[in-house]
Amino acid sequence: xxxxxxxxxxxxGHQDTAPRLLEPAEWASAGIPLLRDPRQVVxxxxxxxxxxxxxxxxAVFDPEERLQASASFRRSSAPDGWAFRNAxxxxxxxxxxxxxxRRTPVRTAVLLYCRAGxxxxxxxxxxxxxxxxxxxxxHGLRCGAYITLTPEGWRVQGEGRGGRSPRxxxxxxxxxxxxxxxxxxxxxxxxxxxxxxxx
Length: 199
Fold this sequence. Notes:
Radius of gyration: 17 Å
CATH topology: Cytidine Deaminase, domain 2
Region (Disordered): 155-199
Structural class: alpha+beta
Distance between the termini: 41 Å
């Protein structure tokens, strides 16, 4: 019978000191799907959640890049991939059922993190990347983009795409201005489904 492991230990019960983070090169080679319109994604999440520094927004999108669910929360631990994975998984379980029965993930999780500094990669970003990738695996989702939001603007890490608006501390645009109408097959439009957990 396998002996249960304590968090932060290896199979033999020794302290696991390996860093739980992803370097930019590892993230860039992980096959993360590109967002069709990152500015719209960032603008919509910022308008809905108005994150302040040390706030994370995790969002789940369908294959048409329509938002299915989202939740925001404050960072409550030191930068560590394991702790971030647990926090992300907890929020995902609250707002949307898992897709573990599917052979191939259909929905994609994206993480927007608001922090101080500039848009350059940090070890904290690497820990969030590790946590997002692991949480997606455990919830049956595709691991999507990791986006930082700073006083300089926003940046999709690993891609180089970014912009100056919105930025940390800026006034959010009205939500209806950040939503693109969804074109139904055969004509006609409707608003995308926006649903978020209470912060």
